[in-house]
Design a protein that fits this description.
three-stranded antiparallel sheet, Alpha-Beta Plaits, 281 residues
């Protein structure tokens, strides 16, 4: 009986020594993509690596566009098969040019203080919705900006001057429109933009003069206390002072005064964000 046990134990030990190390079966195989490059290549490599995690690893050098797959022969073959499925010519959508119009609309709580021209009949349904959703009583067309864009993900910028009917003065008010990657959706009617910004620049102002911009503030009345927040880069300019006051019902005027007598040219501040707070007593 003792002899049988001893022989059995030796057999187990011999079998244990005979088992090969799994890592000794691992191989390394280079993979050079034919079509994959740039961000698309990085996305594919990361995707396949996630699928093969724990079975095969992929080392990718984006500059040289070379990859090395490490793992067992079966797993390496599987990873290579997945990579080759994605290594095909990229299907690019044909570039389309589309046109649309941006309407700059002023909204007013008091129709007597409305500015701008008549609203286009194309916007009748929009005006109806705005009248139902907001407390504004009147709308005026400040400007119309025709835009021509392509579905290539490019940023579009436009400069213009607000008409006199929009600002109520002959002083020129320059504006900028920023549209990030406008895209025409499949319905052929809707334009999607990742970001949209509209800024109005304070007019160029000579020494000893001032310029103004108006901001609609619902509920503001003559004599209310107005607190103005101005960008440091603009407010810290030598000889330039910004103030704000209620100039009409629901309207706050921001005024830039050029007190610097040493300036021979006009002051033309850069675009910035002004914040207005109205305090009622």
């Amino acid at each position: 009986m003792n002899e049988l046990v001893l022989v059995f134990m030796l057999s187990l030990a011999a079998n244990g020594l005979a088992q090969p190390d799994k890592k000794s079966e691992w191989i390394e195989k280079p993979f050079e993509p034919k079509y994959l490059q740039g961000d698309r290549a990085n996305r594919v490599i990361n995707f396949v690596t996630g699928i093969m995690v724990g079975r095969a690893s992929i080392h990718w050098e984006p500059v040289l566009r070379q990859a090395v797959i490490i793992g067992s022969p079966d797993h390496v073959a599987h990873a290579e098969e997945l990579l080759r499925k994605f290594d095909v010519p990229e299907v690019r959508q044909p570039t389309k040019t589309f046109e649309f119009t941006i309407y700059l609309v002023g909204a007013y709580l008091d129709a007597a203080h409305a500015r701008g021209g008549p609203m286009p009949t194309d916007l009748d349904s929009v005006v109806t919705e705005m009248l139902a959703a907001f407390a504004y009583k009147s709308f005026g067309l400040l400007d119309a900006i025709p835009v021509s864009a392509r579905n290539t993900g490019r940023i579009a910028e436009y400069d213009g001057i607000l008409p006199v009917s929009a600002v109520g003065t002959n002083v020129k008010h320059f504006y900028k429109v920023f549209i990030d990657s406008p895209e025409l959706l499949e319905d052929g009617k809707t334009v999607l933009a990742r970001d949209f910004k509209f800024t109005v620049e304070i007019p160029s102002t000579a020494s000893g003069n001032s310029s103004t911009l108006t901001i609609p503030v619902t509920g503001a009345a003559d004599g209310d206390v107005v607190s103005l927040g101005a960008p440091n880069a603009l407010a810290s300019a030598s000889g330039v002072c910004y103030t704000a006051y209620v100039s009409a019902t629901n309207t706050v005027t921001v005024k830039m005064n050029n007190y610097n007598p040493l300036l021979t040219g006009n002051v033309n501040p850069a675009a910035g964000t002004f914040r207005v707070t109205v305090i009622k007593y």
